[in-house]
Amino acid sequence: MEYIINFTRDKDANVWIATIEDIPGLVLESGSFDALLERTRFAVPELLELNASGAQPLSLMFVSKRQERMVL
């Protein structure tokens, strides 16, 4: 099963946020993109097990989005 995890940068809070609709309970945040990536790698299998999805091969795709506003 492939899961697409969205990483969004919250500029005001200065954190990255990970969310996914297909895995209930997955909402993580971190000040570092790399730290959030590691946390998500560990959290996904744990949440799938808690949600009784059973042991199965899985693939994680991370999609990041960061928006910047500039004045010229």
Pick out its properties:
72 residues; alpha+beta
Describe what is shown at a glance:
The chain is built from one helix and four strands, in the order E-E-E-H-E. The protein is elongated. It starts with a strand and ends in a 7-residue tail after the last strand.
Folded structure, characterized:
- The structure is a single chain.
- With 72 residues, the chain is an alpha+beta fold.
- 25% of the residues lie in helices and 35% in strands.
- The protein has 1 helix and 4 strands, in the order βββαβ.
- Strands 3-2-1-4 form a 4-stranded mixed beta sheet, with helices on one face.
- β2 and β3 (27-30) form a beta hairpin.
- The radius of gyration is 14 Å and the shape is elongated.
- 11% of the residues are buried.
The major β-sheet equals:
4 strands, mixed
Shape: elongated
Counting DSSP E segments of at least 2 residues, the number of strands comes to 4
Unreliable parts: none
Strand content: 25-35%
SSE arrangement, N to C? EEEHE
Radius of gyration: 14 Å
User: What percent of residues adopt helix (DSSP H or I)?
Assistant: 25-40%
On the 0 to 100 scale, the average pLDDT is: 88
Helix count equals: 1
Structural class by helix and strand composition: alpha+beta
Strand order of the largest sheet: 3-2-1-4
Distance N to C terminus: 45 Å
